[in-house]
Write a structure and sequence with these properties.
By secondary structure, the protein is an alpha+beta fold. It has one domain. The chain is built from three helices and three strands, in the order H-E-E-E-H-H. It has helices at about 5, 45-60, 65-75, and strands at about 10, 15-20, 35-40. Strand 1 and strand 2 form a beta hairpin. The protein is globular and about 35 Å long. The model has no long low-confidence stretch (mean pLDDT about 90).
């Protein structure tokens, strides 16, 4: 199991989330600072894709996509308030 696989979990509400395990020398690895997390994804694949972008940022491969752009690329329709409707899944 990869570190990315271990960082993606199913939440109590049935959605999926990614939590950075903390990387030394970055804000995610600073004691007392919560590492990056991205929750509420309807599938494990989407949560892992967001996590992969975050890991790539840590590796210096460029910044993660803006959240709105990521949602669009994943095929999710984003409402004006930033939410995604069940019908859009």
């Amino acid at each position: 199991m990869t570190l990315l696989d271990k960082s993606v979990t199913k939440d109590a509400d049935g959605t999926w989330g990614f939590q950075c395990p903390g990387v030394q020398g970055s804000p995610c690895g600073t004691p007392g600072v919560a590492p990056f997390s991205s929750t509420g994804w309807p599938t494990k694949k989407m949560a892992a894709a967001r996590g992969a972008q975050h890991f790539a940022e840590h590796k210096g491969e460029g910044p993660m996509q803006e959240l709105h752009d990521f949602r669009v690329d994943q095929g999710l329709v984003v409402n004006d308030d930033g939410s995604v409707s069940v019908k859009d899944l």
